[in-house]
Amino acid sequence: MKHIPITKLETISYTILAIILGVGAYFSFTDDSYFNGVYAAEDGLAESATAVVLFAISVLTSIRLFKLWSSKKGLWKFGMIVLILVFVFGAGEEISWGQRIFNVESSEYFLENNDQGETNFHNMVVNGKKVNKIVFSQILTLILVIYLLILPILYRKSEWVRNFVNQFSVPVATWSQVIAFLSLTAIIAIMPSSRKWELYELGFGMIFFLIVYNPYNIAVVYKK
Length: 224
Prior knowledge:
single chain, two-stranded antiparallel ribbon, globular
């Protein structure tokens, strides 16, 4: 498969992300209260931007699904639909399904079982354990390692893996996208602030949008 060049959108996105991280790192090291209370605040710009990016991924995927519906097989459509649902769910969770936007009160169940009393699942507490820590941190981290570090290698080396991945329309990261993710992780890791993970979520969302927009296997999964 041919080398996939970096698009103009990717260059712009990487530049914006670098600025966001650079400013974030500065405040994280020099003004922790400003970083946590303003720059990466709850319901702040970073959190809202993350929801927008995640929703944009679902929109982009929906457009491609619609355009290629008649020329693709069932498993490809299934993979696309799953991807759409995953990122609609992610966007909804990020803003608690519009609860704060529309000023909707949480039900009694969520008030009693949600760590923040909000209408979302990632802050739920089950048997004294936070779902966010178990599912959205530990399990998601394992999935990201497999998807972003192991899959790109296997895809390039194994024909069986290529056929399986393409069959389900799974976008595979280019090396530049992998490097961007590793760089994001390294920068976030050295930040001392407690709410640095808001920037991590935003950065991951931006990089994953670029993976979906211009994956290594774009000629296979997103062409007629």
